[in-house]
Amino acid sequence: MPIRILITGGTFDKEYDELTGRLFFKHTHVPEMLARGRCLLELTTETVMMIDSLELDDAGRQRIVTRARDCDETAVLITHGTDTMVRTAQALAGAGLGRKTVVLTGAMVPYAFGSSDGLFNLGSALSFVQVLPPGVYVAMNGQHFHWDAVRKNTASGCFEAI
Amino acid sequence: MPIRILITGGTFDKEYDELTGRLFFKHTHVPEMLARGRCLLELTTETVMMIDSLELDDAGRQRIVTRARDCDETAVLITHGTDTMVRTAQALAGAGLGRKTVVLTGAMVPYAFGSSDGLFNLGSALSFVQVLPPGVYVAMNGQHFHWDAVRKNTASGCFEAI
Amino acid sequence: MPIRILITGGTFDKEYDELTGRLFFKHTHVPEMLARGRCLLELTTETVMMIDSLELDDAGRQRIVTRARDCDETAVLITHGTDTMVRTAQALAGAGLGRKTVVLTGAMVPYAFGSSDGLFNLGSALSFVQVLPPGVYVAMNGQHFHWDAVRKNTASGCFEAI
Amino acid sequence: MPIRILITGGTFDKEYDELTGRLFFKHTHVPEMLARGRCLLELTTETVMMIDSLELDDAGRQRIVTRARDCDETAVLITHGTDTMVRTAQALAGAGLGRKTVVLTGAMVPYAFGSSDGLFNLGSALSFVQVLPPGVYVAMNGQHFHWDAVRKNTASGCFEAI
User: Fold this and answer.
1) Is residue C80 within 8 Å of C139, Cβ to Cβ?
2) A96 part of contact set with chain C, CB < 8 Å
3) Torsion over CA of B130, B105, B13 and D82, rounded to 10 degrees?
4) Pairing status of strand B101-105 against strand B75-79
């Protein structure tokens, strides 16, 4: 089953700029992560943007929706910042993607920082996108949630059912 | 959904003995990996054995089958050495576990070595065990395989459908 | 030879706050780094402050000088942010520490981020402090510099002789 | 001061072969380690051999001595397995290298395994080789030892003065 991975940035792909001491985006780590997972799925990765999801506006969100709808694959994984992941899931659901299974995932710690949850989440989301029925889901904390039944608990940093 | 994780050792949990220069088993890394993945699933971990799967004999394999059958959970994840993972999957399938979903996973590189695929595989297997129908599966390389349709390609180190 | 390690924070000890996405100080990583280096020197570590060296004012700088002067050891290693490391070296030199050997070091990438230069620099600085004659030095990039003959090149992030 | 790094293998440079589950040598990690340490010393690295020091015979040991003697640099760092590091130090001392400063170092855990002491030891040894007077030394555990006053404690894995 061919899978499209749409990369949008988020903590997942942040790096440390040693000259400024700030976090920034350079290139995505997703291909490196897939190699490390010895992933043999039929995948196409596509960088839609590299952005902190707090800075994602409606136009940017629409670009993600458009790419998820227009790509050939029916299984779509989206890497996304956790802060507005649920909003993008809602926008995707509202767009009526038909029989596509769309799974959003992200990370609380950048992959480049060693102690990241990113590799776990990527493995988890790739599995969910293969076997869940059509719909829009968030995959975090080892769990999957329907787009309309999840929120990020900003105090704990975890996703929870509502 | 409560999940039982049966730990049997394998490359997943090997460590480097700096005095002898050999690999050995000390304790399992699975709880540390779950914490790193910020996993919030309802899990019970149980160490059945800590063994290189090449040294797993019939009696040992039977202990794994017994624990998978007798535990209360209907979702069972087993960490296992990759060399004989398929044989254990066959033994599990032959035991008639009824409506249980059993997923075996492992790693090509020890988790403790930094570049391991273990965290990816654990995230992947935990997702599969939540959503696949009853049966016995191997989850490796981002994929899932029915117990009777998979082999490890010893030249590449990858699992493939047969 | 007993060595005093004065910890002042700096990039060395920064961590990633996964709730806010910002860098912060929690506790020092120096003891963990010494353990990883299997360091068997006679050491006393002392946290003077945990601060970004850009925020270090004269009073704070004076506290570092005072601790370097007043501690019993004649070999003193100071971990310090790189941005104002040279200014603190100058303050130490101006304080007239007599026959003490004082070495300042730091890191361009936090130790917690995996790809850090911190462990290399710590090993380097600990060696220099054991064998250099009395004076105040900066140890970075594998080199050592007299306090009055070094600057940080802010474009490259490297220390160079002047 | 130009420094020659002679690479001979040892735990420092071992890697995990995921197909066989054994440790082996592929290429040296020293250049990667130097880059991570942002090392700006004037260095020439030379791979003399890639060997477990338990398998180093007299002819091999003589090749190391020859390269240390014949290279142009007066500062020579040798990466070496810890098991016979002291014997090679003795051979180097016996060869009469005149006014050269030779420092041997190694690691208890391979650099590739994440938790290695190698980066600390490399930083330490590079500093010692710049400032110690002519002679042959072992640099391990943050310390330096004269070639004739050190042994590896095989129970603890640490080097100690004799």
Assistant:
1) no
2) no
3) -140
4) parallel
Q: Does A20 touch chain C (CB under 8 A)?
A: no
Report the Cα D128 to chain-centroid distance in Å: 12
The answer to whether residue D38 neighbours chain C at the CB level (below 8 Å) is: yes
Instruction: Tell me if D105 sits within 8 A of D125, measured CB to CB.
Output: yes
Interface test with A, best of C12, C18, C54, C154 (most A CBs within 10 A): C18
Distance CA B16, CA D11 (A): 11
**Contact (Cβ atoms closer than 8 angstroms) between residue C90 and residue C135:** no
pTM: 0.96
Q: How confident is the model at residue A98 (pLDDT cuts 50, 70, 90)?
A: confident
Q: Residue B103's closest CA among B77, B122, B131, B70?
A: B77
Burial of C50 (0-12, 13-18, 19+ CB in 10 A): middle
* Rounded CA separation A147/B54 (Å): 44
Of the partner residues B40, B114, B121, the one whose CB lies closest to the CB of residue A142: B40
Rounded mean pLDDT, A132-145: 98
CA distance D64 to D66: 5
Does the ipTM surpass 0.95? yes
Is C126 at the interface with chain D, CB within 8 A? yes
> pLDDT digits over C141-153, tens only?
999 999 999 999 9
Tell me the nearest-neighbour CA distance from B66 into chain A, angstroms. 26
Task: Kindly state the DSSP code that residue D37 receives in the 8-state scheme.
Answer: T
CA-CA distance, A2 to A42, in Å (whole number)? 5
- In chain A, which residues have their Cβ closer than 8 Å to the Cβ of B35? none
Tell me, yes or no, if B71 comes closer than 8 A to chain A by beta carbon.
no
| CB-neighbour burial class of residue D103 (10 A; exposed 0-12, middle 13-18, buried 19+) | buried
Distance CA C11, CA A21 (A): 8
Residue A112 sits at the chain B interface (C-beta within 8 Å): no
**Which of B87, B21, B32 is CA-nearest to residue B54?**
B87
- Report residue D154 CA to chain centroid gap: 18
Determine the residue among A18, A52, A119 to mutate to test chain C binding: the one whose Cβ has the most chain C Cβ atoms within 10 Å. Answer: A18
| Distance between CA atoms of residues B60 and B88, nearest Å | 10
Cβ contact C109–A18 (<8 Å)? yes
